[in-house]
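Need DNA polymerase III subunit epsilon's 3D structure for a figure. Predict it.
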Amino acid sequence: MESVSRWPLLQKAFARFGRPVVVVDLETTGGNLYQDRVTEVALLRFDGQSVCRYEWLVNPCKPIPEFVAQLTGISDEMVRMAPLFAEIALQLLPLLRGAVVVAHNSRFDYTFLRHEFRRAGIDFAAPALCTVQLSRRLYPEFYKHNLDSIIERNAIAVENRHRAMTDVLALSDYLEHSLREKNTEDWDNYCRSLMNPKMLPNWVTDALAAQIYALPDSEGVLVWFDAFGKAQAVVALEKAYSETAEMLHGKKVPLYLKAAASVRFIPALGSLHSVWLKAQAMREYGIRPPERVVSKPTAFSTVRFSPDEHGVLQARIVPLDNGSRAVRPYGLFIHKKAAKRALNSWALENRLCPDALNILPVANGKGVPCPVQALGQCDGACRTEDGIEAQNGRIRELAHLLPVADWGRAHEVEITETDGLSGKSITLRCAGGAIAMPDGGWYFDDSLPALLKMKFRRERESVKIIA
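Structure prediction for DNA polymerase III subunit epsilon:
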């Protein structure tokens, strides 16, 4: 246990957070967040009453590069007999879960911790405070805010620089020093505004907070239940804890969040997989999809084919509402004008009768001869029984070729999502902007177009065009 007298101001400042605070530093085999591994963990845990010190060497299960060994002083020999991260995970987790993680460049340390816990089969997320950002806010007059510059600027005494505990102690000394120089209220406000992820707000019950603090910060679906155990909402998330904490801090917190008593998390392998799982969970719990907001700038449309009283398939441009459907959408359009243009071009290219499809301009009116027939481009056979049957067959055969917004020439695709840590993957089929479900149906919501557009633009290697 460390003496509180070394950081009296820091102890008081951290106590204002209402949660334990852990100042942490990691040493690793390198900077790749997915391929490199932790070699050392050091932390000081401030719990409001005392300050406890913990440190471990960790076997990374891979060689430590020579330049890293020279920088940190940690060699392969030193970690050969050290425990694996999975072997210290159950000791480490209670020290970190529900606490505020403070680190210099917290994205690095926080992400490495999350990934190591996931490899050990444990979900982990926490509020995190980056002291690089805090230093920039406290001392904007300085250009450099790396730990070396801070140590030199403030004449902080250190030994074995770049070992984890040395850096933790130096960082804590710096924070204590900053509290002597700066207004405590400002210091506290800066910390709270910079936390990413955030702490949960005080109005969240202890029981619910414990469940939310146990969430990971990865993709998945969160089901919200009220005090009677009835599911109130199903939400697909890319960073489960971070996004949940952000929602709870919102200016307009939804009623289901205010009434929530418990949650269930369903892990996913990627963002599209999250939507797929959300659709299944909504059906399982009887949750209706959110209403389509007509006033939104983008209200998606599709084409629906249905027979008239004579059995002639006619095309209608209809809103593509959120929810499940038995039949896949034919085409996806950002606005009705685009849908009309695309529908006319599709009919023309495939020599389909626009009159039978009921897509001629309204100005033509009923009883007015079909302009295509008047131009001699159609012999009227499309109105015979055989012609109707032939046209209907071609519509069914060609409907899937109606364009999908932001998909280029693709109409149906398979998208593979792979978890970067476990290597597990899933392949999902999408068509017309919707995603195929296990029961043979389809699901669409207005989050899918942007998500699928991103897959085409940034993860093209994961997209296989089927049609």
